Amino acid sequence: MRSATAFADYRRLLASPVGIGVMLAATGLIVWIGLSVWGGLGTAETGFRLREAWDTAAYFYVGVPVMALAVSLASFVDPYRVWRWPLWLVAGHQVGVLLVGLGMQSGLSLILLTIILAVLLAVLFTIPALLASLAARALTERAY
To answer: Is the pLDDT of residue 38 over 80?
Structure first.
């Protein structure tokens, strides 16, 4: 019986705003680091060379849509105060940018560029968040 209670506790945690935010931050981090590693594997140079994710075409064709979908799902599940979901996602994304930058031994030389990227991504991902929130609210109004 303990396992059923523990499962319910985990489910409640994941459905909470903090749980959703942590999953969004993990999504942003995984997208950036995963595409950085994948981009490093596809180089014609000898050996592995870590690259920045935006240097790969997959970042714009796979990474950005995955992050937009994640923000949309979070906004659909919890349609109130949707401004926070893009912030969680971008925060995880920026941690990945800094970790890969340190792994590439570029240090903090691109910090200004990453701040500009963070602002642009937060604004970009606010659009699907608002649309999903409006859809969720419209569907719940019709349900009553």
So the answer is: yes
